[in-house]
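The record is given unchanged here:
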Amino acid sequence: MRLRLDIGYDGTDFHGWAAQPGLRTVQGEIEAALAVLLRAEPEAHRLTVGGRTDAGVHARGQVAHLDLAPELAERVTARRLEGVLRRRAPDVTIHGLRAAPAAFDARFGALSRRYEYRVRDAAARRDPLTARFTAEVPRELDLDAMRRSSRELLGLQDFTTFCRAREGATAVRELLRFDWRATEDGAYAAVIEADAFCHSMVRALVGAVVAVGSARIDRGELRELRDARARTSRFVVMPAHGLSLEEISYPPEEDLAARAEQTRARRDPVLE
């Protein structure tokens, strides 16, 4: 029986999502809580996650799935799992837990992933209550310039400049949304959505646009860097703690299997 878990966490004190020996991770804490309910070893029941977040990255809309025998699945409810986590890991919460179709795959079945990145510039008043979730930039930022430059990065293209693709894979992704807003507490928040992301891609994209907003580079140079498809030191990858995974979207049930098969297929390079 396949179960879907909807998860949130403050990533500050975690070494990322993925279980690692001797390190505190989100996956490790949830699997340990499941082991309490199932009276099993944590390694006996592994989670498959929709977005494998790095150390320090937060989530409001993480999704994972888990396969259990029906008699074991009866022991696992959102209330029971949340109860164990409140005692063991209060920085993790289970928003929901329910049966899912056999074709549901938290990772490969996703249509898109949406992140938010919060940044505060030198002109803003510092806020200690949001410091764990907001990166600080020691310069004033031009919000309009960041909005314009973000729009130029949209679409299906090779994002090698902004990420490291896995060996044998490409960095071709479709960036669906990249826009900015001013928040009530004086920060700026970027909303970034794509069909998929490669490692550090969101933080690199934000770093490039912040470089435009702080006048370190201009929009023309950003376009040149984008088209060069090569790593560069002209902008920095932003810190992890400003980033939060907000939502993972999935197709209707009848399209789940086809979507997973499509996602597993290797993407062709983008031609000139």
